[in-house]
Structure formats: C-alpha cells, structure tokens
Amino acid sequence: MPSTAVPAHHRPPAVAYHGGVPYHYTIGQQQPQIVVQLPETSSMSPAQRELVVNVVLLLVVAVVLCGCVTGLVVIAGGTLMGLIGVVGANAVPIGVTAVGAIVAAGWVIAKLKGLTTSETKK
Fold first, then answer.
1. What's the confidence (pLDDT) of residue 1?
2. For 1-122, where are the alpha helices, taking DSSP H only?
3. Which UniProt keywords apply (predicted)?
4. What gap in Å lies between CA 54 and CA 115, rounded to an integer?
C-alpha cells in the first residue's frame, strides 16, 4: 500500500528547519515559501556610470557640432565662395555658436579630468 493512501493524521509530521526554527507541515502539503532578500547589486560603479554619462554628453556635443558644420555647408551651397559669404554675413551667430561649443567641450573635459583625479585619490 503506498504511503499516500495513509491518512495524513496517521503519518509522522515532516519538519523543515529554517534558521534553526522547526516548521512542521503535513506530508503532501507544499513547504512554506521562503523569501530571500538579496543585497542590492549594480552592474556599474558610480564612477563608471558618471563616465558613461560624460561620454554620452561628449557625443551629443559632437553631433551638434557636425550638424552645425553640415548646415553651414548646405546653406553655402557647397562652394567656397558661398561658404565665405555665409560666414561673413553670419559672423556673430557663428561666433556665439563656436563659443558655446568651446564652453561645452571645456565643461566635458573638466568633468573627465575630475573623474580621473578622483579615481587616483582613492
């Protein structure tokens, strides 16, 4: 006769020990679910995350600069005379854009230098 045919109250109890505490359950019942809270893990350290953000910002600045150059070439019609004419006519906006690009590039370089110096201090 299989053991499952014996009524549960005639069988010995099954005991599971969790952390030294006995938990009794009837054979055939599911064991109680144990919830394990794992420590919080991250695939990147904060320094790596900051480096990724700075690289993305640098790429954004590079894309904007390429767009500005492409826009100038398209407006100028691709000719040297047209380019000289457009640059002469729009010297102030081009200068402001160049200053903004230089400031953005300097900011990114300062962030990257700060990241490398903070790593060497540890």
1. 45
2. 46-76, 80-89, 91-121
3. Membrane, Transmembrane, Transmembrane helix
4. 10
